[in-house]
Each structure stands twice: as C-alpha cells, then as structure tokens.
Design a protein that fits this description.
Blueprint (H helix, E strand, L loop, with lengths): L18 H14 L7 H17 L8 H6 L6 H15 L3 H4 L3 H7 L5 H12 L11 H8 L4 H17 L1 H6 L2 H11 L3 H18 L5 H9 L2 H9 L6 H11 L7 H11 L8 H14 L4 H21 L2 H17 L1 H4 L14 H14 L5 H11 L5 H16 L4 H12 L4 H17 L4 H8 L10 H13 L7 H10 L7 H17 L1 H16 L4 H16 L1 H8 L15 H9 L4 H5 L17 H7 L12 H11 L3 H6 L17 H16 L1 H18 L26 H10 L4 E6 L2 H6 L4 H8 L4 E8 L2 E9 L6 E9 L4 E8 L5 H13 L5
Antiparallel strand pairs: 1-5, 2-3, 3-4, 4-5
Helix pairs in contact: 1-2, 2-4, 4-7, 6-7, 7-9, 8-9, 9-12, 11-12, 12-13, 12-15, 15-17, 17-18, 18-19, 19-21, 21-23, 22-23, 23-24, 23-25, 24-25, 25-27, 27-29, 28-29, 28-30, 29-30, 29-31, 30-31, 31-32, 32-38, 38-39
Length: 841
C-alpha cells in the first residue's frame, strides 16, 4: 500500500511541525526547571506562551505535563497563571497526571502573596477529579478563614465546585454552615454575595435528598437575613444586587407597613444606571404589591419613567430587553402607558427586531384617545424600505381596527393600502380586509367596491389569494365579475401549488353557485372534478363531500356550505391567560424575551419550537440510539412546531378528522341535521333510490359525467426509486423549508412492526431495502421520529418524508413533500407499502 501523500501546505509558524518540536519544548522546560539564573523567568514565559497557544488551537501538549509542573516553582505570578491554566485544562482528561499537581498547588495555597493563594485554590478546585477531593477539604477550610477577601471569595466558589464533585464530602465537612456564618458576618460584600449564591444552589440541589435543606432554604428568606442584605445593598456590585433583589421577591412580608418599608429602601435602585438592577427592582415592587390592587396600579405609574428612560438611553440590545418587559406590563395595564405612545415610535436607525417590538407596543396601547395619531404613524411605516417592517405596520393597523377603535378612519386607510402599487402591501391588506369584514359586515359595500378592482393575477401569496377568494365567494352577489374570476382561477387549478388556496376555491365556488347558479354551473363542475382528482387528501375529501351532498339535496348543501353567519366578536388570542401569568411570575428572565414560560425552553420534556435546522441538528444522522428527542417534544413537533403558518393550515387535517376545513359554528345544527338525513337515506333504500334518481339532474347541471357513486381517484403510474440515492443534510433542510406539504396521512402499524421498533435501526435498514433512505432519526418510547428521503429513478426529483411513530397507539403520522407533486401520491403508496411490511418475516 502506497504511503499517503504529504501535504504541500507549509506549517504555520504558530503550530508545531511535528513531534520534534514538542520534544524540543520538553527539553527546554527541563533545562529551566529549578533554575534561578537571571532572566530565566523571561525565557520560561516565552515557552509557556508557546505551550498555551498550542493548547488553545487544539494541539495535544499533555506530554509536557510533568515539565510544566516542575517549572511552576516560581514567584512570577504571570507564569503561575499560565501554569494553572494548563493544569486545569489537562487534569480532568489525565487524572493520573493531575496527582502530580497536588503538592505544588497545596504549597501555593499557603504562599505569602494572597493573589497566588487565591489562584492556587481556584486551580485546585478546578481539577474536578473525584479521587482527589480529600485534598480539597483542608485548603478550602483555610481559604474560608483567610485574612484576604479575594481568597475567601475564591474559597466560597470552591466549596460549590466541591459540592458538584462530591456532595457528601462537602456536607460532611460542614461547609454550608461555614458559608452561612461567613454570609452574615463577612465585611466584604462580594464574599457575602458568593456565599448567598452558593448556598442557594447547594440547598436547591439538596432539597430532594435532605430533610434539612427545606429549612435552610427558608432560613435564607427569613426576615433577619433579608433585612441584613437590604441594609447593605448599596455596597454590593451590580451582579450581587440583582442576586439579592431576586431573593427578596421570594420573601413574604408580614404586613403592608413592611412592604412600604422595603419599597422605600429600594426606591433609589430604580434610578440605577444598570438596566438589570432596575428590572430586578421593578420585579420586587410588582411581586410585593400583587395582593394590594390600588398600590399595584401606583407601582405601574412609578416604574414607567425608569423603564422608558432605559429604552431610549441604552444599546439596541438593552432597549429590546426592556421593551420586552414593557410589552408584558402594557398587556396587563395598557391604560397606564396610553399617554406615552410616542416613546414607541420607530427610529430610522433602530434594528428591525426593536422596530417590530415597538409596533406590537403601539398596537397594545392604542385606545380611543390616541388611535388616530398611532394609525397615522403606522401608515408612514407602510412605505418603509424594510419590507418586513412595512408588513408588520399594516398588520398593526388591522389589529387596532379589530379592537373597535375609530374603525371608520382605519378602514379608509386599509382601502388605500389596496390601491398602492406594491404586491406585499396589497397582500397583507387583503388578509386584514377579510378579517374586518368578518367582524364588521356593514363595511362590505365599501370594501368590495375596492377589492373588485384587484386582479387575481397580481396576488401571488397564498394567504392573500385565499382571502381574495373568500371575499369572491362570500360577496359574489355584490361583485359582478365574481363567477368569471373564480372560473379563471379554476382553469389554472394545476398551476396552484397551495392546498389552502384550492380549499378556499372549492368553498367559494360553491357559495357563488348558490347565489348565482346559471353563471357558476360550469365552474363548479370543473372545480369538483379537479378537486376529486387532486393529490392532496384534504382537497380531494372536500370536493367529494361537496359532490355527494349536492347529489343528495341542494338545499341541505346550501345550509351546510353557506349558512347565515354572525359577525365575529372576538378573535382567538395566541396566548392563554395562564401562560401570560406564568411569564409575569418569571419577570426579569429570558421567559419575557421568549414570550413563553421557562419550562418550555429549559426542561428536557418541554423544549420550545425549534427551527428545522435545530431539529435536524439535534437528531442523529442515520442513528436512532445515540441522540434522542424527548417524547413530549416529538408530540409538539407533530402538531405544528416544525411548520410554517401556511403548512399548519395545510396539515391541520390530523386534528380535524382528516379535513383542513372547520365548519362554521353557526352551521353546526345544519351539519348534524344533514348528516342525520344522509344516514337515514342510506338506511332506507327507497329514499336512497329516490335521492339517487334525483341526483341525475344535478350531475347533468354540473356537467361532471360522473357515475352515481364517484370512483376513487385514478391509480397513479408505477413509480421506481433510485436505490443509490444521495442527499446531504443541508440540501434536505433547505428543501424541507421551501416545499409545501403534498400529503399528510395517518398509517397503522402491525403489532410485529411495533415489536421490531425496540431497535429503530431495524426500520432504517428495512426502508433502505425499499430504496427509501433515512437522513435523521431520534426519539424515545413511545414516540420515534424519522426523516426519510428518496429519489426518482434516473431523475433528480426528490421525495422528503417526516414520519412520527407512536408505539402506544400503533400509529404513524406521515408528511410527504416532493419536487414533483404530481407523483407524490404514487410515492405515498410505495412508502405505505414498505412501512406495512416492516416487522413481517
């Protein structure tokens, strides 16, 4: 076998050219070890710098461990620091070598220089080697009693490190009681803060293992401790003040006078220059006055000015953090901030994430007195060069209109948006006009007059096109060209890729048929024929349902599809009140920025909705045992966490009995009535025969030429897959984001398949034998998630599959995306066939 080709690249001057250079370093370190000649320390520094630089770029220099330890016998603090850094890096990987460092670190713990004592103690506790904990107890005990505050501060943190290495050793040495004594008696506030932080962490971890822990945790928030910390709060650093203030939020005062005493003591903290201290103080004020309604409202007035000052005086990042907290407060008490709406106007040089949050704030503070000014400002943003901000500003105008503030002026503004020569403005305005008409039907005449002038060819976004189609169907009696516009859209059925638009088109043409039958009969026939043959299951099912109910009874169909509607009074909120209260309880934390409780993004069982890149990155590539996705996370992703808004609409069938359409509430009685009549007809052959005979007229009217009972969709041509298909994860990820969901279905698995899933690798091998390859997988019982891909034989057309299997219900939720959607049904058949054979010998 030929030797590997040598790299032509010249070695970097900062990297060793081979083992010879490490050997030279070792020889030079040995030469200087123990030497006290003049200038030796300078030479050692150069060598140490070189070793540390190699270590930093990932080169293994652990072979120099002994020599580095021997050279540590010096009074040069810079050399000491570099040596400690080296030792701390390699001690955990080489526990046997770490034993060599114990002597010199213990010796340095008794050095005359407090800086060296502290550094040595920190390095000793950073070794994190379990079999060396016996050597930590003595130095830590001495460090806690050291005369220098820096050494005591390091020793306190060292106790916490010892606890994480060996909790029993830490508790047996009675270090927690020593920390408590130090916290209440030490003159240095940083030592006190470190003691408080360490004790909170230790007793929180001990809560489930020790009966003493709950009592000690209660002792930390007792009145003497709280008052002691409050009286010294001005001496603490900013970080320590935040720690103390967070502790105070857990304290329960005995009466209202004590609450006022604490608030008076902390009043000046609201003027602090550090935003974290201000927010921590705000949290204390809010928590203490929750049970005092009048005072609580006064607190909002008091904290308003400091928070608004922080928004305008800090960096964009700080402004965003403070604005997020202000947004939470505005949602709870919008009237308090209604007069300060100008603080939330967007500045030209602000980042887009700050502008977006300010738009939400303007929407929240809008009321009868300021709506005109706010809407005028928002309309200016609609012409912004930043298109996402322009879109958000239009949506904000619509949200204000739905709050019933000055609707007349707002409707005029939205109609002006429809006349703007910008596609994205028209698209968002159409969606908002649809929502307005649902809430204010009395505005239909003015709105429809403008909407009727919009060409459907100029509307490309699925949401906007669906909104336009909804209006064409709902108000077809007022729009002269509605049947002909719908007919032109049906003629281009195959070119429409969005299932959401096709679903709306079916419903709109049905509504139009009931209002203007002669003009719509041919369009309805073409729409039902195209819908029945559609590859998307929801579209196919809806078209089939419409056809069958029309054949049964036209009047029943009208009551189901186009019942009398009531105006929508309130649109659903995106967050429940319980979630908002939970976020408020976690004020001054990441929960406010993420707008979700901490358990959703911290606990393993409740991780928040990731982007597909994160999800794919967390799954193992081709392996199911190594990296697993928690079961609840899989269940959440199964619902909608990996989907865009459009995809959620397309795949909502899994939660609506196979249909992405929700029958309006007003027509529920009609639905049940018609369902009873249909079932009665089926059970009574005479009636059924009569209905069947009567249906011939409607079949002829629609021009479908269908038999009495429509046949199933034609079987797709045989599909052959490439057995050697290849697709890299990044391409898969990109395609998954771009392609719409072609099919979404639920499959049943055999008991043999569920039994075989105890080893998920078996499924990967089985599917690969059918030319369907796995690119990522993960999960834990009872939920397993797999991402598959396949390629069409002799073509570059790809099929992407997300398959979530629940072993307890023996069901598989399957979503399929395809480059060539016309063959997705054929691929679905192949995938279902392959999956059904899994586990069968």
């Amino acid at each position: 076998m030929a030797p590997p080709a040598q790299s032509q690249r010249s070695p970097s001057p900062s990297q060793p050219s081979g083992k010879s250079e490490l050997s030279d370093l070792k020889l030079q370190l040995r030469k200087f070890a123990g030497s006290r000649a003049p200038g030796v320390d300078d030479s050692k520094r150069e060598l140490f710098k070189k070793v540390i630089s190699y270590m930093t770029i990932g080169i293994d220099v652990s072979s120099l461990f002994g020599e580095m330890v021997m050279c540590s016998a010096t009074s040069d603090i810079v050399l000491k620091k570099m040596c400690y850094l080296y030792v701390g890096n390699y001690a955990k990987v080489n526990p046997d070598l770490a034993l060599l460092t114990i002597n010199f670190l213990q010796r340095d713990c008794h050095d005359q220089d407090p800086m060296i004592r502290g550094l040595a103690l920190r390095s000793l506790c950073s070794l994190r080697v379990a079999n060396l904990v016996e050597y930590l107890v003595g130095p830590l005990g001495s460090g806690l009693k050291d005369s220098n505050s820096y050494v005591r501060m390091v020793a306190v943190i060292g106790v916490l490190k010892l606890y994480h290495i060996s909790a029993s050793t830490c508790i047996d040495a009675d270090f927690p009681s020593m920390l408590k004594h130090l916290m209440l008696n030490d003159s240095d506030t940083q030592v006190v803060a470190n003691c408080l932080s360490a004790l909170q962490e230790i007793w929180s971890a001990e809560a489930s293992r020790s009966e003493e822990a709950p009592r000690e945790r209660e002792a930390l928030i007792s009145k003497p401790v709280i008052y002691y910390l409050l009286n010294r709060i001005k001496e603490f650093s900013e970080w320590a003040q935040c720690l103390v203030l967070e502790l105070i939020t857990k304290y329960v005062p005995s009466d209202s006078s004590e609450i006022f005493d604490i608030m008076n003591l902390l009043e000046d903290r609201l003027q602090h220059a550090n935003g974290a201290v201000v927010l921590a103080t705000v949290k204390v004020f809010l928590q203490l006055t929750l049970s005092m309604t009048d005072v609580h409202q006064q607190v909002y007035e008091r904290i308003k000015a400091p928070l608004l000052t922080l928004v305008s005086s800090g960096s964009p990042e700080q402004s965003y953090a403070v604005l997020s907290h202000l947004h939470l407060l505005v949602m709870r008490a919008p009237y308090v901030f209604s007069s300060d709406y100008k603080h939330f106007y967007c500045q030209y040089n602000e980042p887009s994430y700050v502008k977006r949050l300010k738009l939400e704030m303007l929407t929240a503070v809008a009321n009868e007195s300021n709506t005109y000014e706010i809407v005028t400002e928002l309309c200016e943003y609609a012409a912004n060069v930043d298109i996402p901000i322009a879109r958000e500003s239009i949506r904000a105008v619509g949200k204000i209109a739905l709050q019933q503030y000055d609707v007349n002026a707002i409707v005029d503004r939205l109609l002006q948006f429809l006349e703007m020569d910008k596609d994205y403005v028209t698209a968002d305005a159409l969606v908002l006009v649809k929502d307005l008409l649902r809430k204010y039907p009395q505005w239909s005449h003015d709105c429809i007059a403008v909407v009727g002038n919009i060409s459907s060819k100029n509307v490309q976004e699925p949401k906007a096109k669906a909104a336009l189609i909804w209006m064409l169907g709902e108000y077809s009696q007022d729009m002269q060209d509605a049947p002909y516009i719908l007919e032109s859209l049906i003629e281009n059925w195959d070119e429409e890729h969005s299932a959401e638009v096709r679903l709306h088109l079916l419903t709109a043409v049905m509504k139009c048929f009931f209002k203007r039958p002669p003009e719509t009969q041919s369009a309805l026939g073409a729409a039902l024929a195209a819908g029945v043959a559609d590859f998307h299951q929801d579209v196919h099912d809806r078209a089939l349902f419409y056809h069958r109910i029309l054949r049964y009874n036209v009047s029943v169909a009208e009551r189901v599809v186009n019942p009398p509607k009531q105006a929508v009074s309130v649109f659903a909120d995106t967050q429940s009140s319980e979630i908002k209260d939970r976020i408020f309880e976690e004020f001054n934390s990441l929960s406010v920025l993420y707008q979700k409780p901490s358990y959703m993004f911290i606990d393993k069982e409740h991780r928040g909705p990731p982007e597909f890149a994160d999800e794919l990155g967390n799954l193992s590539i081709g392996e199911a045992e190594d990296n697993v996705v928690p079961s609840q996370r899989v269940e959440e992703n199964d619902k909608d966490l990996l989907l865009t808004t459009a995809e959620k609409e397309e795949t909502r069938g899994s939660s609506n009995n196979g249909s992405a359409y929700n029958v309006p509430y007003d027509s529920a009685a009609s639905v049940f009535a018609s369902q009873t009549q249909i079932e009665s007809a089926i059970s009574n052959p005479t009636t059924a025969g009569h209905s069947q005979q009567a249906s011939f007229g409607i079949d002829d009217l629609l021009g479908l030429g269908m038999p009495a009972v429509p046949d199933a969709p034609p079987s797709p041509p045989q599909l052959k897959l490439n057995a050697k298909a290849a697709l890299d994860p990044s391409t898969f990820q990109q395609k998954w984001r771009q392609l719409p969901v072609a099919l979404s279905q639920e499959l049943s698995l055999s008991p043999q398949a569920i039994a075989a899933l105890t080893a998920p690798q078996a499924l990967l091998r089985h599917m690969q034998s059918h030319s369907i390859h796995c690119i990522a997988s993960g999960g834990q019982s009872p939920n397993f998630k797999f991402f598959f891909f396949a390629q069409k034989y002799k073509e570059s057309s790809n099929y992407l599959v997300e398959c979530i299997i629940n072993t307890s219900s023996a069901k598989a939720q399957v979503k399929i995306k395809a480059d060539d959607q016309s063959t997705s049904q054929a691929f679905s058949t192949l995938f279902e066939s392959a999956l059904s054979k899994f586990g069968i010998p």
